[in-house]
């Protein structure tokens, strides 16, 4: 005996409620009609510049920001046009991209993966950015690259030197203009052999994180290939500021070369400690003791001051290069900001131009069209000579510079002198090279 | 309702309404206007509001009730994130197992750290927790990410790769975190005139979870167990002299708040499948302390407000750059415009820390009870203004305690 009665009205009511409940999730999946994430509909297109504005690489980030603003000016037809005049692809007309005025938003990565992803997400979700450019750390680059792949926008990496960015962490929506640790090793080895001989004994101090390891691996491999012996490799905690306790054992190890796989403030401190211990004045195994810093930047050179005199390292680009692209860029950057650009600034500038050019050639902002236009793209006129964006791993191939701390700098900006411009062929490698193995490029993701 | 008194019920209802209608409340400006810069209603930031709300609610159970100031709570957040991402890597992109495991692992981890750290109180306890958190950070950043035993993937952060096992991942399940097929990233955008509002699946999952744990926190605050914790705060020595062993209570509070942190970490990974070591750094631990103090220590709603306040500054103020300023003040004569921009410049963009610091000082000096005290004072002031009216008391906006 129950008093439950089924009425027509009751059935209809509960039926309506149930179906509304079941249908609710579909309002989330049925997204707008756009063909891809953040399709620009108005008269402008928004680019996102995600660089460190606070934290250890803030100075580098701000330099990148200046260069990117300059690139936007040139794209919109303001200023002297910079590298648009020297770029071999003539698709860009100085009227924005595909006729749309270029606007930009900025974010602070704080050199932390989490913060970088948060700021990239807010640029994509809130400001409608269609590509993310810049950054100054490999960890951040890999993290943001993954995000852009998921969200369906293009990522151009900025300063990132670890092999992993276009190795095991490569993504279809991401491209890297910067060189990498393998290339540093390949470019440095012949110069080291020439300057120091082929029977040296090397001691490595390495920053204890991903980038440090890949660089150590690369340098060890390329120096051992030419006959050097690796005495020891010591990992130093990233937060160290005093390296004295790591330098002292070097003297007793029988090594005659010290390789510092450090970057930024780490490198400035470890190099300073090494000089204080008088390493460079020592004679070991009948040879003069030498120090090598595989990855240089203008910022580090300025920070280390006197200490870098004569120390060898490698670089992606330098403002003292004499090709047309470099001269045009250095001229317009110098006229606007009163100083020469750093190599990370040049990277970010070139990437904005390359992205814009790829959109023009593809005739669309759709990430898949852009990826197709950039894959296997060969060009010249943006500095570093003829350049290739390889389709297999989205790594850029161009000449690499070997530089030395200038013995007699004449002003604050020529702290480094170019020793050799290593031709592209010498730093090329197969896409399935063991140091880059694992990981898949996947398919381009247009989002939406 | 639900075993709560009238006041708490109305507080819960207010919180529920605020979180469910957040997409409207946080987007008050038309999307094309200059003020749109201040809109906070986009999915990522809304998710952060509630996730850090959960983190701060949990922290407040320990700090607000027992007075034990933990400076290492970010370790549990990080551990939660790592567990969640490992679930994505091993099982599938479904968020349920990931969130469940993150709570469990963070709970176990907090038993371990709590058991040791709670042997001391006061500043020694804070330093112990800080030491453990920095140890966890160092482990995650380099030690546990060497090529031979890669648990955390170091600086890059733990991510899901295409060649991970994902044994339960269905053939046509979405290739990103989802709840039984509903992607966390899915967003429905509603355009009303010049306004646009985003309804994000991930946000609503977090919001529902936050309401559940907020309810739990109310129950803990009002329970005899909560009373014991308050007794620890007011005079632990006297409590011990009466023959009560306070340690199980403090450890329980520590573990509960560790599990809250783990839950927040798991949700963060569920919204964005990457776990970075910086999540464990001492700055992250300090942030939750700031959130709690800014909002109002020991109050129910305070930590949530504080979390929202700090995250708003971090994400909105840090993105205002000089170009934006120039466009705001373009109506002024050139020289004056530059002068105004020059004055404001240090407080925006990378200077957001400075603005936040000044506001934090003001709050601590003039409103020791945090934002909640500010709200109470405002309410009292309004009440005094409307003298003579009938009983104008509206229990629902009155903060707990």
Describe the 3D structure:
- The complex is a heterodimer of chains A (448) and B (401).
- Chain A has 13 helices and 17 strands.
- The longest helix of chain A has 22 residues.
- Chain A is globular and about 100 Å long.
- Chain B is mostly helical and 401 residues long.
- Chain B has one domain.
User: Main β-sheet of chain B: number of strands, strand sense, barrel status?
Assistant: 2 strands, antiparallel
The portion of residues assigned to helices of chain A is 25-40%
**Largest interface: pair, residues per side:** A-B, 49 and 45 residues
SSE order of chain A = HEHEHEHEEHEHEHEHEEEHEHHHEEEEEH
- In the CATH scheme, the class of the largest domain in chain A would be Alpha Beta
Assess the beta-strand content of chain A as a share of residues. 15-25%
Rg of chain A: 25 Å
- The tally of beta strands of chain A, per DSSP, is 17
Q: What characteristic shape of chain A results from the CA principal axes? A: globular
- The helix/strand class of chain B is mainly alpha
Strand content of chain B: 5-15%
Return the structural class of chain A. alpha/beta
Distance between the termini of chain B: 19 Å
Mean pLDDT over the residues of chain B: 89
Number of domains of chain B: 1
- In CATH, what is the homologous superfamily of the largest domain in chain A? Response regulator
Give the N-to-C terminal Cα separation of chain A: 55 Å
Tally of helical segments of chain B: 15
Question: Could you spell the SSE succession of chain B in H and E letters?
Answer: HHHHHHEEEEEEEHHHEHHHHHH
Mean pLDDT, all residues of chain A: 89
Helical proportion of chain B? 55-70%
